C-alpha cells in the first residue's frame, strides 16, 4: 500500500467534545496535508504542513488545528465538535517532486 | 461556482464499453492536474497525472486543455473492476493544495 497510516480507523464522539486524529507519513515524505470528505462529496482541503510549519489552509474554522512532528508525522485536532464534522478525514503525504499518497482515513461520527 | 466541477453520474456501462469523463476548473493559474480513483469507503488513489500533450496508460487516456480549462479521462474496454468514483483533481500554483471535484461514479455491468 501507500505507507501512509492513520489512526484510529473509526471514532464516535459526542457534540462539543474534542478529537485528535493521527497520521504517519510515508518514509521520506516531509509534507503532510489533511482533507475532510463528507458522504457523497469530494475531499476538501483543511491544511498542509511542511517541515513542522503550516503552509496552506483551506476554508475551515480555527477549531480545526494541527501539528507536524520532527519525524513528519502529523495530528489533526478538532475542538467543539459539531454534527456536521462527521466525515472521513484523510491524510496525504508527499515528498519533493512526488504526488500525494493518501492514508486509509479516519471515519469520524459525531452524535 | 465550484472550483472543480464534474458530472456526478452515475455512468452505467456494459463491460467492454468506452466511457469518457469531463471536468472543468475555474482557476487559470492551476499548476498540475490529476485523476484519482476512489473505491467505496476507501481512500483516493492516484490513477494518472494529466499533461497538456495528453497521456495514455494502458486503457486510460487523459487530456488537458488549458485554454478551455477542461480535463478529460477516457476509459476503453471497461472492466468490472473499473467500477469506482473518479475524482478530477487540480493543484494550485503554490503547490500546497489539492482541489477535488465531487467525483463521477462509474458502474460497469456484466
Structural class of chain A: mainly beta
Low-confidence stretches of chain A: none
Low-confidence stretches of chain B: none
Order of helices and strands of chain B: EEEEEEEEEEE
Give the % helix of chain A.
Answer: under 10%
Largest sheet of chain B: 6 strands, mixed
Specify the number of helices of chain B: 0
Q: Would you mind describing this structure in some detail?
A:
The complex is a heterodimer of chains A (about 110) and B (about 110). Chain A is mainly β. Chain A contains no helices and 11 strands. Chain A starts with a strand and ends with a strand. In chain A, about 35% of the residues are buried. The model of chain A has no long low-confidence stretch (mean pLDDT about 95). By secondary structure, chain B is mainly beta. Chain B has strands spanning about 5, 10-15, 20-25, 30-40, 45-50, 55, 60-65, 70-75, 85-90, 100, 105-110. Chain B is globular and about 45 Å long. Chain B starts with a strand and ends with a strand. The interface of A and B includes residues 42, 43, 92, 102 and 103 of A.
